[in-house]
Design a protein that fits this description.
Blueprint: H1 2-11, H2 29-48, H3 52-56, E1 59-66, E2 73-74, H4 76-89, E3 95-105, E4 109-119, E5 125-138, E6 141-154
Parallel strand pairs: 1-6
Antiparallel strand pairs: 1-2, 3-4, 4-5, 5-6
């Protein structure tokens, strides 16, 4: 009987191997960082020119902006109203620049950590700060879906 079990057991087919899970393509995060930096440079250019149309094109319709010292802004219309008010009260010659420190994500949704510097018309630094932005790739370009930022200190 034992021999029969051995013979029958050796004839049994092995279960087919499970297919290997498809590997997700490796994302070149340095390339993503460079792409986000280009967006941040365009962002600063739009802010510095007080170009509300260009700035708002960088936000998703349902974006949320958690501003420094104010309630969250929900949606593009609220963010636009806030930015227009900021543009109206900003002194002439004020400029901002943003630097991407790091990015995390899968290439479709990317979290950015960055810093910002604002200078007055003479080039003196009047504010530094930091931010976190979450970007989503839509129609081939990154748009901001969430952001939070605050100042380190006001120097002027």
């Amino acid at each position: 009987i034992a021999a029969a079990f051995l013979i029958i057991g050796s004839c049994k087919q092995a279960a087919p191997a499970e297919p290997a899970p498809a590997e997700t393509p490796k994302v070149d995060m340095e390339a993503v960082k460079a792409e986000i930096q280009a967006v941040e440079s365009a962002w600063a250019a739009a802010q510095n020119a007080k170009d509300i149309k260009a700035l708002m094109a960088m936000y998703a319709d349902d974006a949320i902006s958690m501003t420094d010292g104010a309630p969250s802004l929900n949606g593009k219309a609220a963010i636009q109203a806030y930015q227009e008010a900021e543009f109206a009260k900003a002194p002439a010659g004020l400029t901002s620049a943003y630097t991407v420190q790091d990015v995390y994500g899968d290439g479709e949704i990317v979290t950015e950590v960055g810093t910002g510097v604002t200078k007055d018309a003479s080039g003196a630094v009047v504010r530094t700060g930091k931010y976190v932005a979450i970007w989503k790739k839509m129609d081939g370009k990154y748009v901001c879906i969430r952001e939070i930022y605050n100042s380190d200190a006001l120097t002027k």
